[in-house]
Amino acid sequence: MTGWVEIWGQGADDTLSGYVSNVSLGGIAVYTKEILSPGTTVLITIHFFGKQRLESVRAIRGEVVSSLKLDKNFQLGIRFLEPISKENGSALFTYLTE
């Protein structure tokens, strides 16, 4: 998947942005310039290139489960706290199940 994310962290003043590393129906791994601690509750909006156009997935609740330092960046592992379905994440659901 080629795309980027916006992440609102619990207690964070600003939105973090990052790039999608890996995504599944259960969670997402993203590269960011800033770290969020495991256990942090977040809202994630995913923007990606679908078959012919840019698509976005509405904000999905998640929890940071891992934070890995990678040179100048971090890789965050985020578990979705709600199931991804056609009803709440149709673009992502379609992308992952086709």
From TrEMBL:
InterPro entries (UniProt xref): PilZ_domain (IPR009875)
Top-rank taxon, per record: Bacteria
Protein name: PilZ domain-containing protein
Lineage, top ranks: Bacteria, Pseudomonadati, Nitrospirota, Nitrospiria, Candidatus Troglogloeales
Signal peptide per UniProt: none
Entry's transmembrane regions: none
Gene Ontology MF annotations: cyclic-di-GMP binding
Every PilZ domain range: 12-97
A Pfam family: PilZ
